[in-house]
Amino acid sequence: MSQDHPTPDPRHEPVDPDTLPDPEDITEDDLGPAPARPQTRRRFAGTRQQIRGAKTFYKVCAWITGVMLLLLVAEMIAKYGFGNEIFAGGVTADGVENTVGFHPEDSVTGGVNLSSAILIAHGWMYVVYLFAGFRVWNFMRWNPLRLFLMAGGGVVPFLSFIVEKKIDRDVEAELHRFPDAALRY
């Protein structure tokens, strides 16, 4: 029984190191001319796939940050309006087991302060949201004002939902308006 062996590709044959020139002997003339640089600036800084991936990541981050911001606002109202924080577990000052509830700051022992957890989670999610917004902004090569609008979405309640919709529409409109601009490879 004979097996068919494909002919070896000369580009992938092993190279004998003794046949290679000494790196110190190579000059710029040995390298040849550099490829021509494009004369026009590319419209986008990424491919369609990169842009759409960045947009999807931004959308997810915008929604998570928006929801976290609304939880943060509710927590601030509870804390500064009513003097209570959200606790999970622990025992109240009255000796009653706490599952989840609103209690004054120092009245629960052994529980988890969910108010602090909301603050920390929103802060870190906002950092990820800023990174996601920067990626979209960079790929689309928009002006800096648009980046500040996107950043504001994570600190103004409900704005992240509005900005996310606008960014989604603008990205798709520009990709549709410049269909060949995103081709790089």
- Uncertain residue segments: none
Query: What is the chain-wise order of helices and strands?
Result: HHEEEEEHHH
Number of strand elements: 5
C-alpha geometry? elongated
Number of helices: 5
> How would you sum up the major sheet?
3 strands, antiparallel
How far do the termini sit from each other? 44 Å
Q: What is the average of the pLDDT values?
A: 85
Percent of residues in beta strands? 5-15%
Q: Please give the order of strands in the largest beta sheet.
A: 3-1-5
Structural class estimated from helices and strands: mainly alpha
Binned, the helix content reads 40-55%
- Radius of gyration from the alpha-carbon trace, in angstroms: 29 Å
Explain the overall architecture:
The chain is mainly alpha-helical. The protein has a domain at 48-81 and 115-175. The protein contains 5 helices and 5 strands. The protein has helices at 28-31, 48-82, 114-140, 144-152, 159-177, and strands at 85-88, 91-92, 100-103, 108-109, 112-113. Helix 2 packs antiparallel against helix 5. Residues 1-44 are annotated as: Disordered.
